[in-house]
Amino acid sequence: MNISxxxxxxxxxxxxxxxxxxxxxxxxxxxxxxxxxxPDEKAPENLSDAEMIQIKQKEGERILQKISTDTYVIALAxxxxxxxxxxxxxxxxxxxxxxxxxxxxxxxxxxxxxDEVMKRSDEALSFSKMTFPHQLMKLILVEQIxxxxxxxxxxxxxx
Length: 159
Hints:
Elements: E1 2-8, H1 14-27, E2 32-38, H2 49-65, E3 72-82, H3 85-97, E4 102-107, H4 115-120, E5 123-126, H5 134-152
Parallel strand pairs: 1-2, 1-4, 3-4, 3-5
């Protein structure tokens, strides 16, 4: 299975990079994982609604350029469906079973994802009704993907 995480914004925090690198290393025996970090749009503090939409569209265009037509897209969005780790594991297993070997998880910038990215997505996934920094979300997502593979292989993991 080929999994990509397409995200807006570069990871700068060393401790988060170390955590992500650890899970990427652990995942290597289960799947090929690629993290694609795209530049975010610089934005002033007080944005109009039109400016917010424009920024999300620019970031969305960058995201969509990195996703091929045969990729199953899961957008991380607050309004998405919440799942347990076991449900995510089951869903990834079903995708693999039905020939969806390319999966992209998409994490937007601080303003979220554009309408175009949401329309291209096959599903929206929410980890919580709370808002998390997208840098931290990368680490949480990589850990959950790793956990899903462990669950699907019947291997032990922390509950």
